[in-house]
Amino acid sequence: MTTAQPGPRVEAVLFDTFGTVVDWRAGVAAAVDSFAERHGLDLDGQDFALRWRARYQPSMEPVRTGAREFVSLDVLHRENLLEVLGEHGIDAGTIEPGELTWLVEAWHRLPPWPDSVTGLRRLRERALIGPLSNGNLALLARMAKNAGLPWDVVLGSDVTRAYKPQPESYLRAVSLLGLEPGEVMLAAAHNSDLHAAASAGLRTAFVARPSEFGPGQTTDLEPAGDWDLVAGDLVELADRFTGPAWSVDRRGR
């Protein structure tokens, strides 16, 4: 695995969040199981989480194409939840609104992977770090508070007004940091995200998360591109990162 980073030095490392930094499947499944127990429902949390997640990308596509005005991921998650409940024969109208909100906000309470917090703390010593996620700012800020993620900055899709893999989602985040694309690295467990980031001029790091979708996962098991860095987890990524220790005095760039 390469550790060299030729070209402009990387000043910031931004992260895909769902699946790369936090374990959405475990977190959502646990919330669904708790919800089902309270309401006497026959639901399998793991299956429900996968079905809910399956609507993630399709629900954003009308926003990406301009067929729908921008709405936050919290709104899309709630709409998708109602659809999955309907598939299970559950009328959401019979559920107290506060209970539905609690379940939607399971995405705010996702647990970090075991290596995430340690890896991020180490990496933060050498670069600015933050999420570059389709999550909205409130979701990402609450997730960080709950999971102990030591971000320097939180940039939500409602700030960039774009959903990945739209180029604007990457480039507006870079611009908000006052940097150039080549000075920012995206770390992600998803090759498609890295392809889009590279096309926008960002540096790239692949972090393997082979159990994100469970034992039957068949995609993103290994890097599928010439990424700048490849690591098995965030601790290894921090060890391989060779950018400069962060300093507000950047006159030596």
Describe the overall structure:
- The protein is of the alpha/beta class and 253 residues long.
- It folds into 2 domains: 12-23 and 110-240, HAD superfamily/HAD-like (Rossmann fold, 3-Layer(aba) Sandwich), CATH 3.40.50; 24-108, Orthogonal Bundle (DNA polymerase, domain 1).
- Helix content is 43%, strand content 8%.
- It is built from 11 helices and 5 strands.
- The protein has helices spanning 24-39, 45-54, 56-65, 73-87, 97-104, 116-124, 137-147, 157-160, 167-176, 191-199, 234-240, and strands spanning 12-15, 128-131, 184-188, 203-207, 229-231.
- Strands 2-1-3-4-5 form a 5-stranded parallel sheet, sandwiched between helices.
- The two termini are 26 Å apart.
- Mean pLDDT is 94; it is low at 1-6 and 249-253.
List low-confidence stretches: 1-6, 249-253
CATH class of the largest domain: Alpha Beta
Strand content: 5-15%
> How helix-rich are the residues, as a percent range?
40-55%
Gap from first CA to last CA: 26 Å
- In DSSP terms (H or I, runs of 4 or more residues), the helix count works out at 11
Strands of the widest sheet, in order across it, are 2-1-3-4-5
Q: Judging from the principal axes of the Cα atoms, what is the shape?
A: globular
CATH structural architecture of the largest domain: 3-Layer(aba) Sandwich
Return the domain count.
Answer: 2
Secondary structure: number of strands: 5
Described by strand count, sense and barrel closure, the largest sheet is: 5 strands, parallel
Rounded to an integer in angstroms, the radius of gyration calculated over CA atoms is 18 Å
Mean pLDDT over all positions = 94
The CATH topology assignment of the largest domain is Rossmann fold
* Helix-strand sequence: EHHHHHHEHHHEHEEH
Structure class: alpha/beta
At the fourth level of CATH, the homologous superfamily of the largest domain is: HAD superfamily/HAD-like
Family: Belongs to the HAD-like hydrolase superfamily. S-2-haloalkanoic acid dehalogenase family.
InterPro entries: 2-HAD, HAD-like_sf, HAD-SF_hydro_IA, HAD_sf, PGP-like_dom2, S-2-haloacid_dehalogenase
Pfam family, one: Hydrolase
Protein name: Haloacid dehalogenase type II
